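Hi,

Apologies if this is the wrong queue. I'm a grad student, and the batch job for Cationic amino acid transporter C-terminal domain-containing protein from Brassica campestris produced an output file that my downstream script rejects. I'm not sure whether the problem is my script or the file. Here is the sequence I used:
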Amino acid sequence: MEGEERGYWRWSKRDFFPEESFQSFGSYRAALSQTCSRFKNRLVSRSDDETERVELRKQSENEMKRCLTWWDLVWFGFGSVVGAGIFVLTGQEAREEAGPAIVLSYVVSGFSAMLSVFCYTEFSVEVPVAGGSFAYLRIELGDFAAFITAGNILLEGVVGTAAVGRAWTSYFATLLNRNPDNLRVKTDTLSPGFNLLDPIAVVVIAASATIASISTRKTSLLNWIASAVNTIVILFVIIAGFIHADASNLTPFLPYGPEGVFRAAAVVYFAYTGFDSIATMAEETKNPSKDIPVGLLGSMSIITIIYCLMALALSMMQKYTDIDPNAAYSVAFQSVGMKWGKYLVALGALKGMTTVLLVGALGQARYVTHIARTHMIPPLFALVHPKTGTPINANLLVTIPSALIAFFSGLDVLASLLSISTLFIFTMIPLALLVRRYYVREVTPRADLLKLIICILVVVISSMCTSAYWGMNLKGSWIGYTITVPFWFMGTLGIVFFVPQQRSPKVWGVPLVPWIPCLSIATNIFLMGSLEAQAFVRFGVCTLVMLLYYFLFGLHATFDMAHQQIVPRS
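Support response: The file is valid. Your script probably expects a header line. Output copied below for reference.
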């Protein structure tokens, strides 16, 4: 029995639902009758650094192997970010939304991403656990806020992997000199956007997840090699692009106006997603306090510069009206007489998207692992394999739905949903950082807490109003901004002058607090508001599904876990 208990592959009911609430229909009915009181308990309860760093890790039974350095993290950052976004979305958004000003869209989204990176870095140094943003929010904002974020993390992971898988097929087709849809199976029984079945994407996603499950160290080595090849291709794109540049292609620079720049920025933000995967590798990093800041800030600084140069090169090679929205760089090189260049670009894009899938598989599995440690999802997914030192079950939980979605859904359906989910997560992190700096339980006076809440609400609401006013598209009218922007400043200044800081970072901290976190909140909300209405509808439906799961299962499992009402494994 003991050997069976210690085995990794377990599928009994108690491995999925060991909590007291799920041991019988009667106990589950009793738990449901206490939903209101339990929700109130989880809403006001908070975790702490020690619980996240030490106690919860015991749920995995085996430790992850510390094998990564800052060098690995920089290349993981590069590999996790540079992929489908820059190669696919740049052409799409330059053609339809921003024109040559697509370079400004990358500046805006890069600036917003860098603000989020600063906030992530402080948390990842102080709370070096696999849960990343989920763990940070559990400590500062409580279980419910952490759950909503956890749901979006899983949504981002699943949808993001599916989107990159679909893009991989498109560039593989370009490499074979074929139309991308020729490698997909068309069926008339499904609606447009879901009727091009993609078996190649399924195979690529499964292969990446398998490699990530075998060894973190070997995945890092493979990522380094692939990223090095991708870097060579990117340098070629930039240098060759500027050699064949025609400055007249930059005119008109803003064909769709400033509104188009921000609409495009909200979508190309997808190109910056993935950096949060670095924070989830803290348990496998030899020296988290030094290596993670270098990995996060170093990789994102380089990536932002590269993206802007690549976008500018594309805009100068071709008139924005002639840019191919599906394979922009390949067709652009054809247009300047470098037909062979399209194959090199396709190879680089494939390499980039392969590393995105590899690093994404690592990061998403570690998110899932820590979420499962809290019993918010079945604890079976928290287990770390004793031989590989990797969470194989967690990898399967993300890989299977990703492969299914990639099989059916087009990239255009996935990109906007992914962007809004990511922006929501990145809005919550700076908000949690403000709470961490200015509020300590049982220490902060109630009056200071009330002032902090009021100031944060002013910042958030003024940011939402600014975004909404921009979305109204009232050309030439700036009256609304003369109200909303000063209110944002008033909220931020209120924190500066009237709320004393209660905590200072021990090792590395975000500079210019509260300005950087408040600016991060504002830019993320602004970009979120620039997305189309359909993205919010899809986001709302997904959130309702998450809430249904939470009140039927997640709430009761985490309540029992917090109160140690767990039935021992047999």
